[in-house]
Amino acid sequence: MPPVQSPEPSPEQSPEKSPAQGPFDLAEGDPFGPHTLPYGVFSTPDAPTRRRIGVRFGDHVLDLSDLPAAVRPPHADLLAAPTLNPLLAAGRTVWREVRAAVRAAVTEPAHRTALTPLCHPLADVTLHLPFEVADYVDFYASEHHATNVGRIFRPNGSALPANWKHLPIGYHGRAGTIVVTGTPVVRPNGQRKGGDDATPLFGPSTRLDIEAEVGFVVGAPSNHHEPVALDAFRDHVFGVCLLNDWSARDIQAWEYVPLGPFLGKSFATSVSAWITPLDAFDEARTQPPARDFPLLPYLDDAAAEPGGIDLRIEVTVNGETVSRPPFASMYWTAAQQLAHMTVNGASLRTGDLFASGTVSGPEPDQLGCLLELTKGQGPFLQDGDEVTLTAWAPGPDGARIGLGEVTGRVLPAPALGGDQA
Amino acid sequence: MPPVQSPEPSPEQSPEKSPAQGPFDLAEGDPFGPHTLPYGVFSTPDAPTRRRIGVRFGDHVLDLSDLPAAVRPPHADLLAAPTLNPLLAAGRTVWREVRAAVRAAVTEPAHRTALTPLCHPLADVTLHLPFEVADYVDFYASEHHATNVGRIFRPNGSALPANWKHLPIGYHGRAGTIVVTGTPVVRPNGQRKGGDDATPLFGPSTRLDIEAEVGFVVGAPSNHHEPVALDAFRDHVFGVCLLNDWSARDIQAWEYVPLGPFLGKSFATSVSAWITPLDAFDEARTQPPARDFPLLPYLDDAAAEPGGIDLRIEVTVNGETVSRPPFASMYWTAAQQLAHMTVNGASLRTGDLFASGTVSGPEPDQLGCLLELTKGQGPFLQDGDEVTLTAWAPGPDGARIGLGEVTGRVLPAPALGGDQA
To answer: How confident is the model at residue A160 (pLDDT cuts 50, 70, 90)?
Structure first.
C-alpha cells in the first residue's frame, strides 16, 4: 500500500505554539478547542488508581472531578465518578447543561488562574477506557467496503448481499475485549484453512488487518419493546469515538459461515480515549448518499435531519498515511443503525457501543482496511507495526472538531505450547 | 407437532407430599435435593426491592443472605450481595467451600428449627436474573440441529458447513436482553422477505420459534492473551442454566447473510432463575459422540475427562410435551467451546454466559426447535402460547439433579405506528 501524500497536518499534531503559553492558549486551528470538548477518564502518576473524568482542551486535560465552586458545572456529582457512565445515563438535557458550563469555564479568561492548576499535559496522564461497555454492535454500512470485501470473500457470488440496501447489516461483537487507545494488540492464534489446505492449520494469524470505524456511545437507555425512532437518535446517543476493529482475515474467512465473525475479531477492538459529544458535529451534518431502493418507514430518513457526518479519517501505519476514509460516504447513518437495532423491541443500556463498520470511500486512497487497500493480497500487519486513526470534522467559524486518536502496536502472538505446535 | 407421550413426570412437578411436612422433608426423587442446590436471587413481597441470594431446596428457597451463626458458611459476605457475581468471581475453591457448607446446613436435622423461618415457598417469592451478564455467546454445537437447519435455510448447499466439524461455531448475542424465566416475550416486529416477495415486508414475525439450550455461566475471569485450556474449564465455569434462545425465523432468514443472526434473536433470551453448580453433574458426565475428523490439539478431548453431560431436557408448549432433547448427544462440549472462545486471546469476565446452541437429538421427538419439529412448515408460536423447558440429570445414588425451568409466554407484537403500517 503506497503511502498517501499528506497535504494537510494531522489533527493530532497541534500546530506550533510557544512553550511559554498556558493550557488555554490554543494555536489557531487546534482541533481540540472550545467547540470540541470531548470527555475522557484519566489518572496521574501520583495517584494511578484514582480515575477521574476530564475534558480535553488542546494538549491538556482539564480535571472535571472537583472543579472550584466558581466554575462548578451543574450535575457536578456526575463528573466525580470514575467512568462516564453516570453522565451518559443522565440524558440529553443534562449533557447540554454540563457541556455549556464546561465551555464557559474554559473560555472565560477570568477563570484561568483557578483552572490552570487542574490542567495536566496529555503527555503526563494515563488515559483509560472512558466508559463501561454494555453491548457492542458492529455494522457494515459502507457500500464501498461491503462491495470490495464481498468480491474478495465471495468471488463467485454477488458482491453486495441481497439484503444490503434494505437494512443496515450488523452483528454483536465482544464487549469484554474493547480496549483503550495505546493498548498493545497481540496477534491472535487461531484456525485457518485456505483453499489449498487439506486440513485446518493452527497458529498466529498471517492476515492481521485493521478496520477504520466510527463508534457511537449510547447514553440514555431505552425500554424493552420500545423502538428508538430516527428522530429520537439524539435523545439516546451521547457521543462519538474512533474505533479500530482489528480483524484476523484468515481466521474470519474460515469461521464466518454461517453465523458471522467471532474469533477473527473478538481478540481486541480499540477505541479512542475521548468521547466527543454529538452536539459538536452540528455543523458537520451531511446528507447520506442517495438511496437506490425505497426504504421501509422506520429507516426512511428522507425527511429527517441530515444523518451523515463529514468526518475525515486518516489512517497511518508506522507514521505513514495509507488512507483517508471519508465518513460522509457511508450509505447507512448512525440514526438508521439505532432505529434498526431496536425495531424488534431490543432495549438499549447506558454504555452500549455501536460502530459504523469499516469506512471506505470510492477512491483507492479512501479504503478503511488493508484487505481493500491491497486487494486481498497483503501485505497485512507485521509484528511491531503501529496503526493510528485520527479524524476531524468541520466546526463553526472554520474551526476543526477533532476526534481523539486510536492507536495500537502489534505484538507477536503468544508462543504455542508443545501440544499446539 | 404432535405431543410426545409423557412416560415420566416432569422434574418441576414434585411428587406428592403431605402439606404438613416442612421445607426440608423432600419426597423421594425430588430433583432439588441435597445434591442439586442451585443458587438464585429472589425477593419477597414484604421487601420487593431487596434482592437476596438463596438456594433452592425442594419447593422452597432458603435465604442465604444472613444465615444464623451456627450454620453460617465461609465467605458469607459473598452471599449478602444482590447478585451472584461476587460469588462467581471468587473462584472454584470458594465455590466448593460454600457448597459444602450449604449442603451441611440443609442436611443436618439439628439446624432445621433455625433454618425453617428462612425458607420461603417458591410460590411466594419473585425470582430475578441471578447474575449480571457480561458477554453472551451462543454456539451451534448439535450436529443434528445444524444439519436439519442447514437443509431448511440452505436447501441448495451442503447441510453442514465445511468448518462445522473442525471448530465449534459460535457468535456473540445481545447480553442486554437476557431475561429471567417468567418474563413475557413480546413478538418482535421486523423485516422479512420471502422468495415470492418483490420487496421486504415489515411487521410482526410470523415464524416465532424457540431454541432449547443449555447455558454455562463463567465465574472466574481469565486474562487477556491467556487461552483457557480444556482442563481449566472447571476453574472458570461456575454452573449451568437452561436457556431459551427465542428466534424469529423470518427476520433471521432475511438478515443473517453474511454476518450472522442479529434482530432475529436479540429481542429476548430467557434463562432459568437457578444456576446449578457444575459439581452437581459429576455423576452425569458422558463421552461426547465419536469425532469424525481429527481435532486440533486445543480442541482434542480424547484424553480429557468426559466433556458431555447427560441432561435430559423436556420442551412443553401450553403444557404439552413436544420434545425431549438429549444434551448428551451434542458434538461439541462446553469445555471445547470455552477453549475455542479464548484461543485467540479473548479474555473472560465474571458473568460471561455461553450457550450450547439448540439441543437436538437424532430422533424426531428429540428436536429442540419448532423449525425442526415442523420441518420448516410451522405452525410456529401463536400469541398466548407458553413454552417451558425443564431438565434433569442423573445424580449420585439414583438421585436426580434438576435444572430450574425456563418459561415464557408470547405476547402480541406492539402495534405499528401509522407510518409503519
So the answer is: very high
Question: Does pLDDT of A174 surpass 60?
Answer: yes
Q: How many CA atoms lie within 13 A of A119 on its CB side?
A: 19
Q: Does the residue A17 lie in any domain?
A: no
Contacts of A266 in chain B (CB under 8 A): 172, 341, 344, 346
Question: Is B25 domain-assigned?
Answer: no
The arithmetic mean of pLDDT across residues A3-7, rounded, is 52
* Residue A171 forms contact with B (CB below 8 Å): yes
* Structural domain that includes position A91: 39-128
Feature table: binding site of A: 138, 140, 154, 211, 213, 245, 252, 256, 265, 269, 358
Rounded percentage of chain B residues whose pLDDT exceeds 70:
94
B419/A contact by beta carbon, under 8 A: yes
Q: Do A170 and B262 touch (CB under 8 A)?
A: yes
Specify the CATH number for the domain of residue B150. Answer: 3.90.850.10
The answer for B85, left when phi > 0, alpha when psi is -120 to 50, beta otherwise, is: alpha
- B231 annotated as ligand-binding: no
Rounded mean pLDDT of B179-205? 96
**3-state secondary structure at position A137:** strand
Residue window 180-199, chain B: list those with CB within 8 Å of chain A. Answer: 186, 188-191, 193, 199
Nearest to A134 among B170, B176, B261 (CB): B176
Contact assessment for residue B70 and residue B111, using Cβ atoms and an 8 Å cutoff: yes
Q: Which of residues 375-414 of B touch A (CB under 8 A)?
A: 414
Residues of B in contact with A255 (CB under 8 A): 163, 167, 169
Q: Which of A140, A186, A345 minimises the CB distance to B414?
A: A345
Task: Count CB neighbours of B398 within 10 A.
Answer: 9
Contacts of B294 in chain A (CB under 8 A): 199
- Is B248 in Cβ contact with A169 (below 8 Å)? no
Q: Which tens digit of pLDDT belongs to each residue from B231-245? A: 999 999 999 999 999
Which of A94, A96, A89, A167 minimizes the C-alpha distance to A348? Answer: A89
**Which of B60, B120, B144, B145 is flagged as catalytic?**
B145
Q: What's the pLDDT at A279?
A: 97
Distance from first CA to last CA of chain B, Å, rounded? 32
Phi/psi at A6 (5° precision): -110, 90
Which domain-ending residue is among B128, B159, B181? B128
CATH of the domain at B86: 2.30.30.230
- Residues A299, A337, single domain; the answer is yes
Pick from A128, A66, A80, A130: nearest CA to A276: A130
Beta bridge partners of B277: B239
- Asked which of A89, A105, A128 is the last residue of a domain, the reply is A128
Q: Evaluate whether residue A16 is within a structural domain.
A: no
| pLDDT tens column, A280-304 | 999 999 999 999 999 999 999 999 9
Q: Burial of A285 by CB count in 10 Å (0-12 exposed, 13-18 middle, 19+ buried)?
A: middle
Res. B9 pLDDT band, cuts 50 70 90: very low
Residue numbers in A near B346 (CB within 8 A): 174, 176-177, 263, 266-267
- In order, the DSSP letters of B307-342 are -EE--EEEEEETTEEEE--BGGG-SS-HHHHHHHHH
With contact defined as beta carbons under 8 Å apart, do A36 and A56 qualify? yes
Predicted confidence (pLDDT) per residue in B300-311, tens digit:
999 999 999 999
Task: Count structural domains, chain A.
Answer: 2
Domain membership flag for residue A5: no
Helix (H, G, I), strand (E, B) or coil at A241: strand
What residue of A is the nearest CA neighbor of B193? A163
Please confirm whether the linkage preceding B379 is cis (ω < 30° from 0): yes
